[in-house]
Sequence to fold (331 residues):
Amino acid sequence: MKPTVLSAVQPTEGLHLGNYLGAIRNWIAYQEDHDCLFFVVDLHAITVRQDPKVLRSNIERAVATYLACGLDPRKSTLFAQSMVPEILELSWVLTCHSSMGELARMTQFKDKSSKQGENIPTGLFVYPVLMAADILAFRTSLVPVGDDQKQHVELTRDLAERMNNAYGKDLFIVPKPMLGTTGRRVFNLLEPENKMSKSDPTGLGVVFLSDDDKTIEKKFKRAVTDSGTSINPEALSQGLKNLIEIQAAIQNTSLETLASRYAGKQYGVLKVETAQVVIEHLRPIRDKTDALLQDRAALHQILREGAEKARERASAQVKEVYKRIGFVGRS
Ligand code: TYM
Fold:
């Protein structure tokens, strides 16, 4: 049996370069020799309020982007999270085996909740448990994610081990996070101390996969570096390091190799060349995404077929969990 690989992205505000370099790009190779499930986590998206029309179109765009990046529904199971209700059943069971203390320690919860004022949505708090359910419902071994999701996969491991200790060792597979060598944390171009994130209110420091060539060029030209002018590979500011790392990730080379190639060159050269590398790389993905969005019915069909396969697998896992915890009736 091939090991199972599973990962997902939230369909909010469109996908960005961080999602691509930190996650999606690394998924493609697994398709050849692993059992793969990749999906769009629409249930996660509603942890913050969404406009229904915008959400629907973001889900469709996310699926089209997956396909445009090279995910193949004949090789991988593709679906939307809300189409597999078994995930929610497992999520409740896991919620009852998690503690408020461990969820309150999640860095992402602390960051996101600090921006919400008095009214912190409960969904934001329990979101990592839903993610654990996503992973554990499918007997997943490997979870390719960016750096910021590593802590959630660690929590998933803790929950799996806790459940295995309580109800039998083989109940869940304990999954491992898989991080890429480059691009595991892409930073905001205007605030290089913060990760590139969909929740940036202006979007000016975020390169969206749907941005046109001119917009991408402009965003890189405005990228924040430091007060110097020429590149010293021994003393790279966070902004410069981010630009070099983005380029290195796309060219499959290391930060060090690329930094030494830029030694002594002007910051402007790095910005323009990085923009060019990104533009050339993203253009075919964007064009293909737009073409796929012309046939939304075909996208829905791919999701339905994927969800059917996913449900079959998740329901077997939920059935086993229900039986072991003592429920009657699902056999
Ligand atoms: P999300 O939608 O925030 O991000 C999706 C993926 O993109 C990675 N990522 C980044 N990588 C590098 N640099 C960045 N600036 C950057 N921003 C995001 C994330 O690490 C992630 O891999 N809860 C998850 C989605 C999820 C999931 C799952 C993932 C739900 N269930 C099960 C794996 C398995 C999330 O909100 O990711």
